[in-house]
Amino acid sequence: VHHNAQKPAVVVTLTGAAGQIGYATLFRIASGAMLGANTRIRLNLLEIPQALGALEGTAMELTDCSFDLLDGVNIFSDPRRAFEGCDVALLVGAKPRSKGMERADLLEANGAIFSEQGRALNEGASSDVRVTVVGNPANTNALITASHAPDIPLERFTALTRLDHNRAVAQLAKATGVHPRDIEGVAIWGNHSASQFPSLEHATIAGRAALEVLAEKNLGEQWLSKEFIPRVANRGAEIIQVRGGSSVGSAANAALEHVNLWNTSNSVKGPQITSMAVPSTGEYGVEEGLICSFPVTCGGGEYRVQEGLKLSEAGRRRFEKSVEELRQEKAAVESLGLLGNR
Ligand code: NAD
Ligand code: LMR
What we know:
Elements: E1 10-15, H1 20-31, E2 41-46, H2 52-64, E3 70-76, H3 79-82, E4 88-91, H4 107-124, E5 130-133, H5 138-147, E6 157-160, H6 162-176, E7 183-184, E8 187-189, E9 197-199, E10 204-205, E11 208-209, H7 210-216, H8 221-233, H9 235-243, H10 249-263, E12 273-279, E13 291-299, E14 302-305, H11 313-335
Parallel strand pairs: 1-2, 1-4, 2-3, 4-5, 5-6
Antiparallel strand pairs: 6-12, 7-10, 8-9, 10-11, 12-13, 13-14
This protein binds nicotinamide-adenine-dinucleotide and (2S)-2-hydroxybutanedioic acid.
InterPro entries: L-lactate/malate_DH, Lactate/malate_DH_C, Lactate/malate_DH_N, Lactate_DH/Glyco_Ohase_4_C, Malate_DH_AS, Malate_DH_type2, NAD(P)-bd_dom_sf
Domain Lactate/malate dehydrogenase N-terminal: 12-150
Organism: Rothia amarae
């Protein structure tokens, strides 16, 4: 089989490649689950020096798969080399939180990683690079990265909220007894944190307004504010509690879907509304440059924030609270000296 023989391989740089999410992601990337069955891939894997041994083993395993689409695997501990020629960057390498922590508690420990990687992207990434930040706190780490890469268009920097999106779909499906595939229009607004607003206000179930279907089951505002929203917003903490470590398989899956929906014109799941944290250009009154989750439509390397959606009074308030938290995180990293001068 010839996979676009004349097209050069896409360079995918994955950081934290020897970590848990890295391991759950790599083999699926190499099998085509992220960029499609016709796109050849070169993997540039970045780790800290202590993890290069384990990463070498993973690279051997990748070789042992004889993947049709995989043109090469390189491992690095120098970000400047790992991001040279990078087309798709997945920034996963960062410390995960443990029980009792909020994601923002990681800002100081993780922030510096993203300053350095932003500079490396700026120096060496390919002109069409697309960046997805997974390492927490993801929105603000994406802000830090972008601030150090002034030569790359700001809209190329995104953070993952597809995991929250999928969690919201799953909880709605469970409450209404439908399959997730019948649900559309769910959206995550704000930060990938406990303050996020997972909205069902524009969601549909098999074409019917989700709020109407819920009302028939006597699930109204009370259920939204006491059950649904806290369940979704605190699901990361619930997983840590039950599993004894932060989510891995579901996070890897969401990251692949995020990149897939954004960067392929023929996404595995077809055109749909998803949630992505992207640099605000002032949509819904959010201050420019904050990396905020919105409902978006995307494909072919572009995305568009869905504009003109009306949120309820309560929804608006929830969203604004989460945006306020993003502002505070920005101020915090600014005072830690972690922001560059884009
Ligand atoms: P992990 O500890 O298993 O792996 C992290 C890896 O990153 C480690 O191998 C570590 O050596 C590496 N690393 C650390 N500093 C690095 C650097 N400067 N350059 C390159 N690599 C570096 O953790 P994990 O479970 O894979 O989680 C990774 C991150 O993803 C955490 O911050 C976690 O909170 C976050 N996360 C985000 C979401 C989301 O939805 N946005 C979901 C789950 C997890
Ligand atoms: C998640 O949402 O599962 C991740 O962000 C990990 C965490 O710390 O909750």
